[in-house]
């Protein structure tokens, strides 16, 4: 064994049938922690337990011994990976957030794969400090999972943990599935992607990102409501032709920024890309960043009605003739529509008591997000509002 006051390395083989517990012998203030690196091709078959204030670094594919005993990380301890390869399919039991919130299971470096099952014995954190981590085993337990660290975490199994998923930093790729009711919340600095199935609601907050696929156009299925308040990135490839897609959504609320990139091929009149598939569409993107088009071409935006974009010939210049806005009520939402030659006009709204009527103050009108970029908008009916007034204005 070699080491310093706060670290040690065991390069030889640890064998035997007994249990192996790693603990910190001294608790000092301010709290520090010790690191034990296991670099041997270990064959011990007993359970490995990692106690508080200890980080065990698995530097060998069999660092954790045979898969018979399993490994438990207690609250305040951490198991760290730096092999840059595939580990033996060791079963893990995780507790809490690890050391300094870096993860009860932490990817220190390299592209690592761990295929053993993981049990969440309490609310637990998976951290990817550097590199990327792929988990192929089933994650189970009645507690939430938090993803932290700037690196990417990929889940490929049909997970069964049931208390929600929080992405605080880095990207979570769901290439397997999350169970019914497992809500996913992506916070500022976090990202969500993949080609799997999420069987619960998804919310992408301001400053967070959503990009279906894994570095290429792909379909991510969200069997539940989807709220987009951050940055949504979609890829398309006219040459293939393929495009990223979000499918299965019950109620889709647009917001934030949509950025679309064409990876290849020349876009032409009639090209249509269905980016979102939902039962109901609400709101609109505040900002649209779409691929550049050739002369006399423009984008037709049908996101509010069917989730698609289409390449069309340039419409005539914006008509300045005032018109009445048509509307219909369906499924708890108002669908407003106006002629395509009025794209560029804004739908504005004002809320007052019916007895009060319309205010003459222009500051009392607010623009419906994204309405200037399209000629149709869907707005959910809010029964708590006494009276809503709408009108179309230019510019």
Cα separation of the termini: 74 Å
The overall average pLDDT, rounded, is 93
Strand content: over 45%
Output the radius of gyration.
26 Å
Label the overall shape: elongated
Helical amount = under 10%
Q: Which residues sit in consecutive blocks of at least 5 with pLDDT less than 50?
A: none
* Number of extended strands: 41
Largest sheet: 22 strands, mixed
Work out the helix count. 1
Query: Which structural class do you get from the secondary structure elements?
Result: mainly beta
Topology:
Elements: E1 2-3, E2 7-10, E3 20-22, E4 34-38, E5 48-50, E6 54-58, E7 71-73, E8 78-81, E9 92-96, E10 105-107, E11 111-114, E12 118-128, E13 132-135, E14 139-140, E15 145-148, E16 152-155, E17 165-167, E18 170-174, E19 177-178, E20 184-186, E21 190-194, E22 197-198, E23 202-204, E24 209-212, E25 219-222, E26 226-228, E27 231-237, E28 242-243, E29 245-254, E30 257-262, E31 272-274, E32 276-283, E33 287-289, E34 297-302, H1 303-306, E35 308-313, E36 326-330, E37 333-337, E38 346-351, E39 366-367, E40 376-380, E41 388-393
Parallel strand pairs: 2-4, 3-5, 4-6, 5-7, 6-8, 7-9, 8-10, 9-12, 10-12, 11-13, 12-14, 12-15, 13-16, 15-17, 16-18, 17-20, 18-21, 19-22, 20-23, 21-24, 22-25, 23-26, 24-27, 25-29, 26-29, 27-30, 29-32, 30-33
Antiparallel strand pairs: 1-2, 27-28, 31-35, 34-35, 36-37, 37-40, 38-39, 38-41
């Amino acid at each position: 064994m070699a080491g310093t006051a706060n670290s040690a390395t065991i390069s030889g083989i640890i064998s035997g049938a007994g249990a192996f517990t790693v603990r910190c012998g001294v608790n000092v203030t301010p709290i520090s922690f010790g690191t034990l690196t296991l670099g041997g091709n270990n064959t011990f078959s007993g359970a490995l337990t990692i106690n508080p204030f200890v980080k065990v670094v698995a530097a060998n594919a069999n660092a954790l011994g045979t898969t018979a005993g399993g490994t438990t990380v207690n609250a305040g301890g951490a198991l760290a990976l730096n092999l840059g390869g595939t580990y033996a399919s060791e079963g893990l039991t995780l507790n809490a957030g690890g050391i300094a919130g870096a993860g009860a299971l932490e990817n220190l470096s390299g592209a690592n794969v761990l295929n053993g099952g993981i049990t969440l014995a309490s609310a637990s954190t998976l951290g990817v400090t550097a590199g990327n981590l792929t988990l192929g085993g089933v994650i189970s337990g009645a507690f939430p999972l938090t993803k932290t660290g700037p690196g990417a975490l990929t889940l490929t199994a049909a997970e069964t943990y049931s208390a929600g998923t929080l992405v605080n930093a880095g990207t979570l790729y769901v290439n397997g599935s999350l169970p019914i009711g497992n809500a996913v919340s992506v916070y500022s600095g976090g990202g969500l992607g993949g080609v799997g199935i999420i069987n619960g609601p998804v919310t992408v907050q301001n400053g967070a990102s959503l990009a279906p696929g894994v570095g290429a156009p792909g379909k991510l299925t969200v069997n539940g409501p989807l709220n987009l308040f951050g940055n949504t990135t979609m890829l398309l490839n006219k040459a293939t032709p393929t495009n990223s897609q979000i499918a299965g959504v019950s109620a889709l609320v647009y917001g934030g920024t949509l950025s679309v990139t064409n990876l290849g091929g020349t876009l032409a009149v009639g090209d249509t890309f269905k980016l979102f598939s939902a039962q109901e569409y609400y709101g609109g993107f505040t900002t649209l960043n779409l691929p550049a088009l050739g002369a006399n071409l423009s984008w037709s935006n049908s996101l509010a009605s069917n989730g698609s974009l289409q390449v069309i010939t340039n419409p005539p210049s914006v008509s300045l003739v005032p018109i009445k806005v048509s509307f219909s009520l369906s499924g708890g939402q108002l669908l407003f529509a106006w002629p395509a030659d009025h794209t560029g006009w804004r739908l504005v709204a004002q809320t007052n008591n019916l007895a009060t009527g319309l205010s003459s103050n222009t500051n009392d009108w607010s623009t419906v997000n994204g309405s200037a970029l399209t000629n149709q908008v869907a707005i959910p009916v809010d029964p708590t509002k006494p009276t809503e007034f709408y009108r179309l204005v230019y510019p």
